[in-house]
Every structure is written in structure tokens, then in C-alpha cells.
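Record type: ASSEMBLY
Status: queued
Input:
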Amino acid sequence: MIKTAFFTILTLVFFYIIWINNVFAPHETYEMPEQYKKIAEDDRYAKEGKQLFEQNCQACHSVRYDAVYPSAIQANPNLKALQEQYGKVLPRDVYESAFQAELAQLKESFGKVPPDLSTIYIAKGKEYLFNFILEPQKVLPGTSMPAVITGKPEETAKIISYLRSVSEPSSSEKAKRTLMGIGTIAYLVVMGVLIWIWRSRILKRMGLH
Amino acid sequence: MLGRIGKWIDERTHLSDLWRSQMVDYKVPKNLTFPYAFGVMALVAFAIQIISGIFLTMYYQPNVQTAFDSVNYTIMKEVPFMWLIRHVHAAGANFFLAIVYLHMFTGIYYNAYKKPRELTWIVGWLIFFVLLMTALSGYLLPWGQLSYWGMVVTTEIPTSIPGPLGEAISVWMKGGYELGQITLGRFFGLHIWLLPLILLGLVSLHLYLVRAAGISNPEGIEIDKKKEGVPFHPYMTLKEAAYVMGYLAVFFFFVFFYMHHFLPPDNFEPADPFKTPPHIAPEWYLLAFYTVFRSIPNKFLGFVAFSLILLLLLLLPFLDFSPYKSARRRSLFFAMYIVLVISSMALTILGAMPPTPTNAMLGLVFTAGLFSFFLSLPIISIIEWGWYKTRGGDKT
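Status: finished
Output:
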């Protein structure tokens, strides 16, 4: 009994330490005021954020998973034909070969093609993005990202809200998933209990208990 | 009608005889403890990986240009419910390895590797080894930053072998001097075909051997199955079914509510050969080996040390030749088992810490602890043979 308790607690403590000591968690933390966090997490600002993105960021950045391409590519007459052939979200190989000239132009201006921002929200988190967009040089010295909307934290938070809406499922979808999770777990627990009750009945009848 | 169809089939296949002989007439000890259920849980985890993996291959594209998008767009956003399949597969890999580790430690505790079960242990070790290879190869497939750089580090391990051999192995693994399409293609092939097929064969063999050599007993005394055993079905099947339901409930709790933990954020950036991420570390199930490798100052000796640990684990049935079985009745073995458990846990936790001199020192101490467990086994066995003889061959 003591041994069982000892090994159970040891195992649980071990997995708990491994869990909180996650090697892949971000190593730097960034500050973000609560009011802007709320904006970034709110789906309602995503639409406005997209407009702000188009005004401030789209000159160089793409959000391919939302069919948003850098302005020069968006203006290219070939884009529409390609989208009709491959769907709105172009495959990366098609995109990179069809718009080689535009991408090379961007590369020449910045030293590398500015990254696609489809999954950047999950990769970097809202706190990092908030600080980086506001003051790029302070967070990442030497970066070729210009300070486009410095001093406008609310707009920045709205842009982050848009990027989040591309990276993450919407809040209604999240609610659905939560419900699905609760349903699945409840089903498994109920089935487990029922099997256990059924088993003890069978064993009683067999005289094995 | 259904009964008649069933009877028609049974007359030709004799499946009911097989069921009776293998499930009902097959007797197992009544006193099996909870940890014995880790075996069946591992089997369930394996089935989950196979099924979710098959669905993932329908949409995944093993191409350096499109792999990342096929995972993060097609699978995560485009096709309904594929996000769930990916979450199940990613969390499932972690759970599978956790359960396999628990299963191994259970086996060591109850001395389930001893005569007549040596082959069961050896086949189990092979499963563990192939499983690690499968996990490593699968890690590359999303072609994100961590996938890419994790594999760069992994393929550098063989270069610690001096001379041209290490370099040759490294190049052979990568299929070139750099990671690229060929690497992705071959790891895809390994991950979805070769390694799972080997695993399937090994798991079948493992299950057959469990049947052939019998299940061990927590008391360490082989029972007369005809007199003391209980029928496998329904006594064990229903008990384990209930445990599996509990396991799945915990599993799906993490899949639905704590998934971000199993999909590291760095891997949501596409692989970039020109940008090294600041922190590269292996997954938790490799951290113990990683710490051993890292704590020893000489790279080659580090490589030898962690290979030796794997080898000693394989040779466990031959290192321990004591007449007694199960830590329940072996106090010396129990003490060393605690050393083993504490050392492996400490090595894993140290792997997640920054490589300071203190941590390297602690790493060496616990590496020594790990080796002392294996090396103490022959000594304990000799002592216990002495006791066995003075007691006149009494195994209790």
C-alpha cells in the first residue's frame, strides 16, 4: 500500500515537473497591457484588423492562408487566373514560381522575403508580436522590419486580432470543440463505469468475486 | 437470421473454438495489479497511432515546398475534423511513449524479464527502439523549424564516432550533405511504412510470447494456472476495458484542452536552413539519453555511454540471474530499483534545464546511478543465490 502510493505520487510528480518544465515554451516574456490583450483576443476586431493589415503590412507581407498576398502580387493580373485554377489559397510552389519577380524585388529591398504571417500568431504569441510591431528594433536589433505603426498600440492589437483569426479557430468553433471534448470524456467515463458494474455482476454470477 | 449466418461461418472457420481456447480457457493469475494494464493501454495507443496516421497520410504531402502548408493549412484548417486527427496523433505519440516507459518500469519491478520470459523482454526492447526511431522520423514530417533543426542535431550524433565511419552514417541518414527533399522523402517512407510494419510484426510477436511464456506474477511465484487462474475472459478483458476507458478519458482531456503543449510554437514557422532557432532540445522521452550524452565532456564517450545504457537494458535478463522474482520479495533489488527510477527521472528533468556546470555534475552523478543499477544486478544475484542455498532451495 505504501509502495503503491509512493510510486503513484512519484510518477505523477515526475510528469508534472516535465509538464511545467516544457523545453519548448518561449524563453523570453514580453509585456502587453490588459486592455490590448482583450482587443487581440476578440474576434470582433479581426475584420477591422484586416483592413489595418492591408493598409500597413500588405505592402511586404502575405497571409497566404487567408489569400492575402503582398500588394505587388495582388496587382498582378495572373493572380486571378491562378486562383481559379488552384483555389484561393495558392500552393506554395505555384505561388513562389509564378511571382518570382515580385518576391525577388521584396528580397532585394529587405535582404530576405518578409515572412508569411499565416501561422505567426501561434509561433510567436501576441505579447511578442505586440512589442515587435510597435518597436521592431528594440525587440530584434538589426531587423529589416520598419517601424510602421509605432505609437499606435490599439491598431497594433487589432492587427494581432486579425492574425489570430487566421492562425486559430474562431471562438464559436472553439466553443464547439470544448463541447465535443466534454461529450467525449463524459462518454468514456460513463462507459468505463458501466463496464465495471457489468463486470462485477458477471463475476458474482460466476462465483469469482 | 444473424445467428444462422454466424453458425454458417463458424462451421467453416471454427472461430468459436479459437475464442474458447484463447480467451476463456486461457487462465491468468488473479492477483495482477493495476500496472499490468499498461500493456493493453500501450496496445490501444498503438492502434490509435496507426488509425490516425492513416488518415493523416491522405492529406499530408511529403514535399519540402508543400509539407508545412499541407499540415498547417489543409489538415488544420481546410478539411473538417482533421485538426482532431492531428491532435490525436501528436498527443498520442507522447502518451504512447509515456505508457511504454511505465510498462517497462513495471516489467523491471516485477522481474517480468526473467526465465521463461527473456524473449518477451528482448522483443519488447526492440519495440521500444523502433518506436523511438518512428517518433524521430515522424517529428521531421511537418517541416517546421523544430522538425528541421531537431533532425539536423539528430543526424549529427553519429559524427561523434571518430574516423570516416561516423560521417558516412550521418550522410547516409540524411541522403546527402544537407537536409532536403531526399531526407524528407525517406523519413516519410520510414515513418508511414517500414517502421510501423516492423512494429506491427514485433507487437504481434510480443503478444504471442506473452501467451506462450505466460503472464508474470506480482508475487514472483509461478502459479498452477489450472487451479488458481481465472478465465482471461471475462475476468481480465472487462477489467482492462474499464481501465482503457479511463486512460482514453485522460488522453482526450489533454487532446481537447491542453493540446498547445504537444505542438511546440517554434514548429509553426516553416523550416529555414539559414535561421537556427535559439533553443533546440529533444522531446521529453529522449531527454534522459540527451543528458547522458551532454554531461560527459567527450562526445564519443557520451555516445558510447548512452549506447551502453540501451545495450544493458537489452541484456537485463542475463545480468539478473537470481532465483527470486519480483521486487516484492527482493529487498536489495528493490533498493536498486529506487536508484534506477530516481536516476532516470532526474536525468530527464535535467535535460530540460540549461547546461550549467552544476547540472552537468548532477548529470554525471545520475548517469552513474543508472549504471550502478545495471552493474549491481549480477552482485545481487550472487548474494541471493547464497540465501537461496542456505534456505535449502525455498523460493518464498
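Annotation: Chain A touches chain B through 53 residues (CB under 8 Å).
Annotation: The mean pLDDT of chain A is 93.
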